[in-house]
TrEMBL record:
Occurrences of domain ATP-grasp (ranges): 99-296
Source organism of the structure: Mycolicibacterium tusciae
Keywords: ATP-binding, Nucleotide-binding
Record's keyword annotation contains Ribonucleoprotein: no
PANTHER family in UniProt: GLUTATHIONE SYNTHETASE (PTHR39217:SF1), PTHR39217
PROSITE patterns: ATP_GRASP
Region forming the signal peptide: none
Positions of region (Disordered): 193-215
Ribosomal protein is among the record's keywords: no
Origin organism lineage: Bacteria, Bacillati, Actinomycetota, Actinomycetes, Mycobacteriales
Protein name: ATP-grasp domain-containing protein
Length: 312
């Protein structure tokens, strides 16, 4: 007697880019193969491609134009069947006001002031950085030592209906930011991002797509004190959102400073670059396997595992 072979469900998985980068910037170029080695089939689409609505799971990777189409993007995140990271995570993390939530939870965050249109423009003393509270890829971020020039930039953001985020310029950033990568809530790898913002009056250099500032990246082996900040940020974010940190398929925590006084600059949960190309081939293969296993776990949690559509 032959045993019946169960039906195996193959979920349709999309890695989401944008129109300018429909297959990402190249850093994620090996993810499709890494997923395939786990029996998962994925392909790239721009996030606004109607075919994303047919996917069983959409993974945000290079949706770097969303800041110009935020309302449309956030509506789309709730329209696809399943999204990682989840729509509630994306909505919270797309506005840098989340920094205030993390600071309130005790995470050591770079001092941050938010100035909404109509607010009094009280700027900190000294050299500062002004950026839009909703922004990605360093678009709209500038560095100022002249308070009047800074005020003009804040006013220009207000004219566009944007809230400005103002932070003191911390010269430790000239040594680079340490980018801590977590996969499914677990510590994975790290890399260093060189300084982006030039002196006052200049804009960062952007890639040909115009969606993000070009960065100088190098491998890193951070001290545990920096990883502690990363773990604290993830725990605080998960608690605020009412989820388990393991539900965050990917996360990147950008930290400045050394082990004596590390501070969080940003927590990236929407579409961060994960710095795969900074890893040697063997480590990259191992970490991308972890990513693929995280996708498997996500599918199981969502009821989309291989036997989820099995007929009785």
């Amino acid at each position: 007697m032959k045993l019946a072979r169960p039906d195996v469900f193959h979920p349709r998985i999309v890695l989401a880019g944008c129109q300018a980068l429909p297959q990402g910037d190249g850093d994620d170029g090996e993810l499709v193969a890494a997923l395939r080695r786990r029996g998962l089939h994925a392909h790239w689409l721009s996030w606004d491609d109607p075919d994303t609505l047919k996917a069983d799971l959409v993974i945000l990777r290079a949706t770097w134009d969303y800041i110009e189409r935020l309302d449309e993007f956030l509506e789309w995140t709730t329209s696809v069947r399943n999204l990682v990271n989840a729509p509630a995570v994306v909505s919270w993390n797309s506005d840098k006001a989340y920094l205030a939530d993390l600071a309130e939870a005790g995470v050591p965050v770079v001092p941050s002031t938010f100035i909404a249109p109509g607010d009094r423009m009280n700027l900190p003393e000294g050299e500062i950085v002004v950026k839009p509270a909703v922004g990605a890829g360093s678009v709209g971020a500038q560095r100022f030592h002249d308070s009047q020039a800074a005020r003009r930039h804040v006013a220009s953001l207000h004219d566009d209906g944007r809230t400005a985020l103002v932070q003191p310029y911390d010269r430790r950033v000239e040594d680079g930011e340490t980018a801590l990568v977590f996969l499914s809530g677990r510590q994975s790898h790290a890399f260093t991002k060189g300084p982006i913002l030039p002196s006052q009056g200049s804009q960062p250099a952007f890639d040909d797509s115009g969606t993000y500032a070009e960065e100088s990246l190098t491998p890193a082996e951070p001290d545990f004190e920096l990883w502690d900040v990363g773990h604290a940020a993830l725990s605080a974010a998960a608690a605020h959102l009412g989820i388990d940190a393991a539900e965050l398929l990917y996360a990147r925590v950008d930290v400045i400073g050394g082990p004596d006084d590390p501070q969080l600059l940003e927590l990236e949960l929407v579409e961060p670059s994960l710095g795969w190309r900074q890893l040697d081939a063997a480590t990259r293969s191992s970490r991308q396997r972890d990513f693929a296993v995280g996708v498997e776990d996500t599918l199981e949690r969502l009821g989309l595992g291989p036997l989820s559509h099995r007929r009785p």
